[in-house]
Amino acid sequence: MSDSATRTPLVPPSTVVLVSGGSRGLGLAIVTDLLSAGLKVAAFARTVTPELAKLADTEPQRCYVDSVDVTDLAATQVFVRAAEDRLGPIDGLVNNAAVGQDSLHVHTATADIARIIETNLTAPLQLTRLVVRRMLAQGRRGRIVNVTSICAQRGFPGLVAYSATKGGMDAATRSLARELGGRMLVNAVAPGFFASEMSAVLGQTQLDQIVRRTPTGHLTAPEEVVPVVRMLLRDQTNINGQAIVVDGAASI
Ligand SMILES: NC(=O)c1ccc[n+]([C@@H]2O[C@H](COP(=O)([O-])OP(=O)(O)OC[C@H]3O[C@@H](n4cnc5c(N)ncnc54)[C@H](OP(=O)(O)O)[C@@H]3O)[C@@H](O)[C@H]2O)c1
């Protein structure tokens, strides 16, 4: 039998993508980029910012947004159904929503550890299960991109629980890629530090130190991460189960 006769059919490019945490920062940059590339995008966050609302107002047939807490499983189910009614079946998921941390582990309250794990690990696993179940039930193939962090691979003080969640998502990426047996491409993008509300807790000394350690001489910009996310959603590659670091070699 020829090789092509036994090969799993290729996963087509995503056309309708759900982006969690699309209201600002990297998530908003991903939503904007995917819309510019002609895709349909459903995005949520707890608060729909004016920037995200404007995208949905400008492109009502291609962009659906709402206010949803990713930790509220029932609310994410309602959102996914409403988004599919408006845009068509979701065949791409970007797990981007997350909360940061700014406390040494010994000073981090139990409730804060639980909130970070629930938002950054439990919720994206549940959202992924929801979306993958629908894709499988409808016989569709798709792509999943988990936004993790260089903190999953390298240590950073003040980010112990956060790093644990991102390492968990990197690990889940590998196992899900194997579990889905090529019916979907599952990857992670692990950015280095970039300027956003989340990283605003870093002081200038820490930022200067990161830049000094970075061979490309600057902090990663969201615009330098976005093309990698788009590539994983759109391009015909055999990349599967990988965590792609985008940090200018700061961590090498
Ligand atoms: N900034 C960095 O240096 C850096 C580095 C590496 C990786 N990352 C990762 O990149 C991704 C984006 O980070 P960012 O820096 O762009 O962060 P950001 O500006 O704080 O944006 C986070 C997004 O997630 C949403 N979000 C947070 N909690 C949520 C919840 N419970 N339910 C729904 N949405 C929620 C936020 O909206 P609401 O608050 O309105 O819900 C917002 O849209 C994250 O996964 C982060 O871990 C960031």
TrEMBL record:
Cleavable signal peptide: none
GO molecular function: oxidoreductase activity, acting on the CH-OH group of donors, NAD or NADP as acceptor
Any Pfam family hit: adh_short
Family membership: Belongs to the short-chain dehydrogenases/reductases (SDR) family.
Gene3D superfamilies reported in the protein's UniProt record: NAD(P)-binding Rossmann-like Domain (3.40.50.720)
Name of the protein described by the UniProt record: Short-chain dehydrogenase
Alphabetical list of InterPro entries matching this protein: KR_dom (IPR057326), NAD(P)-bd_dom_sf (IPR036291), SDR_fam (IPR002347)
Ketoreductase domain: residues covered: 15-197
SMART domains: PKS_KR
GO BP annotations, alphabetical order: fatty acid elongation
Organism: Micromonospora endophytica
